[in-house]
Amino acid sequence: MKPGHTGWRHLVNSTRYSIKGLKAAWRHEAAFRQELVLFLLLLPLAGWLGDGPVEWILLLGSGLVVLSVELLNSAIESIVDRIGPEHHELSGRAKDLGSAAVMMSLLLAGLTWLLLLGQKLFG
């Protein structure tokens, strides 16, 4: 943190950088766009599906986890690509691990939604 950038100024700068990151993800990352659109489309369903605030936050939280992990995966890919275009075992491993993390978050979200949907439909 730069000297003098504390308190509200730090909060304002951090918020500005976060918005800049979200815009970059929307502009450059197709997977992020797809996951965000799906999340927004499922929001009304979460209101119907979630019986109470705990179930509602589980549904929304699982979607936000997917988006957060996708952002981290995109950051890893950007750093690896910045280092150089040549193939390196560790670069490939870093990208594969990031992709695996996204898959795990999608699995969590899918299971959460399916279990709560099953509970709603079949009691």
Give the key terms:
about 120 residues, mainly alpha, Helix Hairpins
How would you describe this protein?
The protein has 123 residues and is an all-alpha fold. The model has no long low-confidence stretch (mean pLDDT 94). Helix 2 (30-49) packs antiparallel against helix 3 (53-83) and helix 3 (53-83) runs antiparallel to helix 4 (89-122). The longest helix has 34 residues, at 89-122. The chain starts with 6 loop residues before the first helix and ends with a helix. The chain is built from four helices and no strands. The protein has helices spanning 7-28, 30-49, 53-83, 89-122.
In short:
The chain contains four helices and no strands. The protein is mostly helical and 123 residues long. It has a single domain, classed as Helix Hairpins (Orthogonal Bundle).
Write the layout of secondary structure elements.
Elements: H1 7-28, H2 30-49, H3 53-83, H4 89-122
Helix pairs in contact: 2-3, 3-4
Gross CATH architecture: Orthogonal Bundle
Q: Report the strand count.
A: 0
Number of helices: 4
How widely separated are the two ends?
52 Å
What's the overall average pLDDT, rounded? 94
Hey, roughly how much beta strand do the residues contain? under 5%
Measured as a percent range, the helix fraction is: over 70%
CATH topology: Helix Hairpins
Shape assignment: globular
Spans of 5+ residues with little confidence (pLDDT < 50)? none
Rg over C-alpha atoms, rounded to the nearest angstrom: 18 Å
- The CATH class name reads Mainly Alpha
Q: Which structural class is indicated by helix and strand composition?
A: mainly alpha
H/E element string?
HHHH
Q: What is the count of structural domains?
A: 1
Report the biggest beta sheet as strand number plus sense, adding barrel if it closes: none
